[in-house]
Specification:
Layout lengths: L7 H73 L5 H29 L3 H30 L9 H73 L5 H61 L4 H15 L7 H10 L15 H26 L3 H72 L3
Length: about 450
């Protein structure tokens, strides 16, 4: 008796193949969305650390150097005023107190940022201890100077000796520690940026590869169903393919935009703000060196050389002495200068900063000429009036320039967070919609074999 071959194994292989292709497609889609989620989380972490957490805190701790240097500058200013500038002396003392409060606040932020890092915590504690010693020495010098009236210029020897101890503690201990603290804290931002700059492009590449794999699987599934069932492409699977392509393009574009936002926030924002904060602090210390130049005749040459070294770090030109530096800065165009301000002197605000710095150096040149001629009272007047006014204008120009970079920083972070929010809103919807469309395209074909 002849028996007919059973067609069941062949029929059962069709739904099996459909399930296999559908499973591979689902796995590819899951890989795509996992890569998108990983990329979004990674870039979001970078935006949070650089834009909302460590970045602003590092900039705040950079103000520690400015506050400390200005404290010492105000003490020197108060000591050279003698008994002829009562109102100005009180303003200097009041500003000293404000800067002391700012320094304490910056140290608290630095302590918070240090986390569980014992080395950074020891540095913060060391600065706090040193600041306490400096405040005692400065208070003794100011009190003794007040009790020893003298004309503008050099105070009595015992006041000068106390000031030497205080300014040496500030210059040799506190300011280097404050600068190192900012560098250590800035490492958090740099490491975060370097990590994200390496990881985000890799994840974006993974998104593209996973997306192309998912699109390929969807196309294979549609072609197989169309050929096996002799039908045109199913609308549900076609919609799923289009939705996947949209998710791929949108997701990879968001990651690319956020990568660019991170780059702008770090290079055009954070780096410049930190550089300008350091330039302001060093410039403020330069102003203190002017007063110390009059205050301590035994160290006048030392303070003049220190002023030159700091000027070269702010804006560098080839100059072996302060006279040559003055001539080149006040007579030059400002183009091609290096140093902290060199790369920042672009645009209208950069030109304004350069012009203000040039006027400050010109005022310093006149101030030193008066001091060299023995016109001590006139030199003090020049230091407190034209030099001080020129410095204030220069400092305001740096603040304006820094605010531009701060705005660029905030815009970049805000833009990155905004586009990232759109991606996070897309992901759940895309997963649900594409999953339902795939099921709607495959389930009716499987039902035909039941």
């Amino acid at each position: 008796m002849q028996t007919r071959p059973a067609p069941a194994p062949v029929r059962r292989s069709v739904p099996g193949r459909i399930r296999v292709i559908s499973g591979v497609t689902a796995a590819a889609l899951a890989l795509l969305f996992a890569a998108l989620a990983a990329g979004a989380w990674t870039v979001g972490d970078g935006l949070r650390v650089i834009g909302r957490d460590a970045g602003p805190q590092v900039v705040a701790t950079a103000g520690l150097y400015l506050a400390l240097s200005d404290m010492d500058a105000q003490v020197a200013d108060a000591l050279i005023m003698g008994d002829s500038y009562d109102r100005e002396r009180q303003r200097a003392v009041d500003r000293y107190e404000r800067r002391r409060s700012e320094a304490n606040q910056a140290l608290l932020k630095a302590f918070e940022l240090s986390g569980d890092n014992p080395a950074e915590r020891r540095t913060v504690q060391s600065v706090l201890d040193g600041l306490g010693r400096y405040e005692r020495l400065a208070a003794q010098a100011l009190l003794l100077d007040e009790r020893s009236p003298h004309p503008p210029g050099r105070p009595p020897d015992d006041v000068v000796l106390l000031h030497r101890q205080a300014t040496d503690l500030m210059r040799l201990v506190l300011l280097p520690q404050a600068y190192n603290l900012t560098l250590e804290n800035g490492t958090i931002v740099r490491q975060t940026y370097d990590d994200k700059a390496l990881t985000v492009p890799l994840l974006r590449g993974a998104v593209v590869l996973a997306g192309l794999l998912a699109l390929g699987c969807l196309l294979v599934l549609q072609v197989y169903l169309a050929r096996r069932f002799r039908r045109v492409l199913g609308p549900a699977l076609l919609a799923a393919t289009v939705a996947t392509a949209v998710a791929l393009l949108f997701g990879s574009n968001v990651l690319a935009q956020d990568e660019q936002a991170l780059r702008e926030a770090k290079t055009a924002g954070f780096d410049s703000v930190l550089t300008l904060a350091r330039a302001r602090a060093i410039s403020n210390s330069m102003q203190g060196d002017q007063s110390r130049y009059l205050l301590d005749q035994a160290r006048a040459d030392t303070y003049e050389h220190m002023y030159l070294d700091k000027s070269l770090s702010v804006l560098y030109v080839e100059a072996g002495n302060l006279e040559t530096y003055h001539a080149k800065v006040t007579g030059g165009s400002g183009e091609g200068f290096r140093g902290l301000l060199g790369p920042e002197l672009v645009g209208r605000s950069g030109k304004a900063a350069m012009d203000a710095y040039r006027r400050f150096q010109a005022a310093d040149m006149d101030f030193r000429a008066r001091a060299a001629d023995g016109q001590v009272r006139e030199a003090v007047e020049a230091r407190l009036r034209p030099v001080g006014e020129a410095f204030d204008a220069y400092d305001r120009s740096l603040v304006a320039l820094s605010e531009q970079h701060e705005n660029a920083f905030e815009r970049a972070i805000g833009r990155g967070e905004s586009t990232l929010d759109g991606l996070w809103r897309l992901l759940p919807s895309a997963i649900g919609v594409i999953g339902l469309l795939v099921v709607a395209g495959v389930w009716p074909r499987l039902k035909e074999y039941r």
